[in-house]
Amino acid sequence: MSGRVIFHIDLNSFFASAEILKNSALQGQPVVVAGLNRRSVVSTASYEARSYGVHSAMPLHMALEKCPELVVVQGEYSWYEELSERFFKYLRKFSPYIEPASIDECYMDVTEAIKAYKRPLDLAWIIQKDVMEDLRLPCSIGVAPNKFLAKMASDMRKPMGITVLRKQEIAKKLWPLPISEMWGIGKKTVPMLEEQGILTIGDLADERNEKKVMTLLGKHAYQFIQHARGNSSNQLNFNQSLQSISQSTTLDRDITEYDEVKTVFQRLARTLSQRAKDERLSGRLISVSIRYHDFSNMVRSVNIPNYTNDINILLENALYLFDRNHNGKPIRHLGIGLASFQTAKSVDQINMFQEPIENTNEVEQVLKELNKQLPDAHLTTLGKVLAK
After folding, report:
1. What value does the mean pLDDT take over residues 137-149?
2. Are the C-beta atoms of 315 and 265 separated by less than 8 Å?
3. Which residues have CB under 8 Å from 43's CB, separation 6+?
4. Which of 29, 330, 374, 376 has its C-alpha lying 20 to 30 A from 17's C-alpha?
5. Can you tell me the distance from the alpha carbon of 170 to that of 230, in angstroms, rounded to the nearest whole number?
6. Each residue's pLDDT tens digit, 44-60
7. Whose CA is closest to 114, among 145, 139, 138?
8. Which of 19, 48, 99, 105 is catalytic?
9. Higher pLDDT, 361 or 237
């Protein structure tokens, strides 16, 4: 393979697999992880349960109607976190370039790592085999030149599949898929697209439908179109030192109102900002974690142009990530993280596209600090030069 090689590694029916690992008597049975009352929804279903038509987000009473023999397990999140840590620790033996997407999936840049193997897919096969043998967790792996295609590839064969999706193959492998299977397209958006004749991923990629799609999908339309055409980022958000700081809270009750979410994020951002300042840390990678009432988990991150520990920037990006990714379920746990650090002692790279600083005293202070750190430099303002 030429260019970058990205793996998307997805643990199959993770919570159910974790419960089976803890209790081998559940092996081969239709298992779901959910709350223990009939108003709960299914968080994860084993593949045996899925054969009855049971799936995640289905109300538990409906799942029991479809499969009266269903085994319902409440779930233990600390156990899932422990297994997840083992999983990521194992993967880092092969590459430090790992971007977690959630508790049970990640992107992995293996461009250099695969050079040690005779055949590129040997690495994927070894990872899948050892995760199953050593951790007793089944996984699927998508192999592609960018993140979107890798994610789509890993979904194509489950459980325990390895799928390669090259750009030249998207017309055959990707475009015939129904639009509902495209990652990032929400359930509410699917009927809108279908009503306008956008039935497949190929329809979304079709230039003839571009204006229609731009109208329907608004500000994110161009990104979706590019994804459907096989164009996506191959840059991973990761921190090689693995150093990060975060603040999180488990709520006293499930919340759904946006104002409540914003209040929690404000509190977390304030504490995280102060902690970063105390430790003289500034970071470029901001992440949020959301755990829902049904134990499903979502982690998303964004790389910002400049290093920061400012509360307003932390809060703004946390809310941006929340707005783009929240699925509407009641929320049990929220967190904000900061990573990809430089220390506050380091000299910040000045961004020529930033707005100029209004306050002259702030400019003078910045120049004073730079001249102190760069003894051979004699930096001054343009105004002083012209005044001479």
Report:
1. 96
2. yes
3. 15, 32, 33, 34, 56, 75, 294, 295, 296
4. 330
5. 7
6. 999 999 999 999 888 99
7. 145
8. 105
9. 237
